[in-house]
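Margin note from the TA: students keep mixing up input and output lines. Inputs are the sequences; the output is the structure of the whole complex. Example:
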Amino acid sequence: MATTAEIQPRRIYRRVRVRKQRDVLALSPVANMLLNGLLILTCLVTLIPVYVIVIASITSEASLSANGYRLWPEEFSFSAYTFLFSKGSIVITAYINTIISTVVGTILAVIMVGLYAYPLSRDNFKFGTFFTFFAFFTMLFSGGLVAYYMVARQILQLNNTLWALFLPSAFSPFWVLVMRTFYRLNVPNEIIEAARIDGAGEWRTYLQIVVPLSTPGLATVALFSAVGIWNNFFNALILVDDARYYSLQFTIYTTLNNIRFLLENADRMQGLVNLSDLPSQTFRMAMAVVTVGPIILAYPFFQRYFIRGLTIGALKG
Amino acid sequence: MSLGVAPPLSPPVAPATVPKKRWDVYKVKTNLAYLVMVLPGAIWLILFAYLPMPGIIMAFKTYRLARPPQDELIQNTFVYSLMTSPWVGFENFRYLTLSTNIGNTLMYVRNTIFYNLAFMVVGLVLSVALAVIIFEITNRFWAKLYHSILFLPYFISWIVVAYVVYALGSAGGIINNDILAPLGMDPIEVYKEKIFWPFIFLLANIWKYTGYGSIIYLATVTGIPRELYEAAAVDGAGKWKQFTAITLPHLMPVIVLLQILAVGRILGSEFDMFYALPNGAALVKDVTYTLDVFVYSMLRTSTPLGYPAAAAFVQSLFGFILILITNYVVKKTRPELALF
């Protein structure tokens, strides 16, 4: 049960202490320097992939066809980006689809996960055990891909709709379990009892007391579902055949796949395809950059929330 | 609303039984409200998780498309077809183990298990190491910055990673142009050689999940009482001794929990990664196909639906059994660590 001590979010990074004397537990300066060096190196290596696609997207087409991909190209060009937003209708359609799906899907996820998890965190909910198991069981057992594929297409009729891009991702038993713990640790029973004594109904208590106290948790759910839907490839892969409903990830995957296949088999297909008709190589890399762009730009702003939300909710899983 | 102790209720109740009865009505009201809250999520679970479950009987049938006649009660083509399709027992499973197919089936099972084990072990070691190192770093600002950067890959999609693999490893890629050519070595082509793929998947997995995986360990390490370390330091324990004697035992519950879940998923796989990174390259299929990709590819070719359904059934069932066994073993040895 929650006590007042637990309401305080715990810091997960060590506090810098004012040092009058050397801390017994602090690393020796040499070890500290070595670890810092190791982490700086790791961080640089981690960023290589991002660097690679960014640099490839601003390599000029001429130097790409002459020298291939390079760490530092001979000639830079931003033409891929102007091209992308001027006439690339497939990208723009996919972008709009993905933005709509992400916004609607995230709102649904926060509402559904938030509401489902709250009663499970309350001791006075008679069916708490049942509904916890009802959600948890789906993490252990599933009908398998084939059954899901048939049900989603033939019974739910999701194929070739915008719904297909977000509805399958709009709820998650995993986040229900995280949020349940989060409510338990962050919403003290006393406050809910006080609201009850003042005559607030369950809905009013939830919306006016519980939600404001649970913002970090709900924000974490929102962020992870937003990123999950933005990056989702599978929904479009199995449920969408119509290019009007392609998601961003699916569009860029198809492009990469088609072109790699054509280039590798160009000798066998001579005369069948005109290679110069294909989207240029830099254009493709620019598509990839534009896909990660919003995430990288938003990242610094949201990262402090989710680390806190994740740790508090996941602690006693 | 600050007047009464209990909320206004209707209908009025007899004075003698006031406390108990009021409480009962209240309880019903509360539970009704709770049920309504649970409803949207429960509907989602029914539609997307429970509705497909009966569909596993497809594994024991030869699925034939049949249009429901006008007077039939069930008008859904899929449900009707599923009901009218003949039972064939284990025929679909036999197809997967025919002498011509058994090699492939086993290979994909082997790939799935091998990759999962590798990811589990390497992921665990690196995530714990990262959590401990970040915790030890004296400067909090830098610790945060490192962690933020290492967490970033979690948010980058596998499709974009597929682009990175292409830009680095294809015939005209950076590895050939900037590393191998200057050294005078033969060029590589990842889409044509099997040897690279285990390393690519392992690296990609480390890259994407180490930062994310370390979060929960970091939170646990931070929660360990400082006095324990101080006492150990006074008694002359070095950093390594402190790690094995204090940190590791405290991390155990979390580690066990996560490993139980991972064992349950040992026949599953990160579909996006295994499907997108090789980019449909047929030459490396033997090392890149996992059961998920295999099921999907059967689903999308003209193979009778019973075959992928049988494979998917084995996958679901084994995953379920494995998680029960692991949990049982943990429960017998360390009851407090069991999942349920």
